[in-house]
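testing teh design pipeline on a random one, pls ignore if ur not involved
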């Protein structure tokens, strides 16, 4: 799948920034979640990673990109768009090329091994004695593994909206939203996206059953692969993400 350094070149953290104009240093003011880059500098994440962290007048959304040499750069996101169908996905343009990611072209099976790489646990604090009052963020990249337990329609408790989803036996700590769900055994060495992590839910079962799940057992939730195929936004022009990735030869079949 690649080294940690390789992974950081296509799975990146989202922040709100202030400054960075006319050569000034951009200061992160808030962590928003995780995201990933596909071919041509297109960034994909969850819509709520923007909506849950509204901007103040002098702030802008960006990504903190870490190159293979460890150098970090604040990238201003352009053409931020929300999926018009209402699915909790968003796209933007970040200008970083060279992403190795492919999009899955067919349906993975139940029990398929998957993984995610994102930035849960990232937080900001003002260091003791730091007179500037600026936040310093403890940015932690984490690799998480699990397997697909089912594909199903999840009903969100907040509004009853039905979401086509993967249920994954894997932790999904806060901050992982927007990270790619990747097939662990994709053909060759191509990192292949099968979904986008967006949250977690607690399984319910009959407590009197001999095979009942442990009380409060959490599963990760990820957007289903067809939601990615159908994803649209200004950065993609007139195409869906599936059409765009097909045109650029970035589709990979699970079953060959």
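output:
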């Amino acid at each position: 799948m690649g080294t940690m350094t390789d992974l950081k070149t296509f799975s990146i953290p989202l922040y709100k920034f202030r400054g960075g104009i006319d050569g000034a240093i951009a200061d992160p003011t808030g962590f928003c979640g995780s995201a990933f880059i596909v071919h041509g500098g297109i960034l994909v994440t969850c819509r709520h990673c923007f909506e849950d962290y509204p901007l103040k007048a002098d702030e802008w959304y960006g990504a903190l990109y870490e190159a293979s040499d460890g150098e970090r750069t604040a990238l201003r996101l352009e053409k931020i768009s929300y999926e018009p169908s209402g699915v909790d996905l968003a796209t933007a343009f970040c200008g970083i090329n060279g992403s190795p990611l492919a999009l899955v072209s067919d349906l993975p099976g139940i029990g398929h091994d998957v993984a995610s790489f994102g930035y849960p646990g990232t937080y900001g604090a003002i260091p003791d004695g730091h007179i500037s009052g600026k936040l310093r963020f403890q940015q932690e990249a984490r690799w998480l593994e699990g397997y697909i337990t089912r594909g199903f329609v999840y009903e969100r408790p907040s509004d009853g909206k039905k979401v086509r989803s993967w249920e994954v036996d894997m932790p999904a700590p806060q901050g992982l939203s927007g990270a790619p769900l990747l097939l662990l055994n994709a053909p060759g060495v191509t990192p292949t996206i099968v979904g986008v992590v967006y949250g977690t839910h607690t399984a319910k079962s009959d407590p009197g059953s001999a095979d009942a799940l442990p009380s409060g057992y959490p599963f990760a939730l990820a957007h289903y692969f067809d939601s990615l195929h159908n994803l649209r936004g200004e950065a993609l022009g007139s195409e869906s993400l599936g059409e765009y990735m097909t045109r650029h030869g970035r589709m990979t079949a699970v079953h060959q």
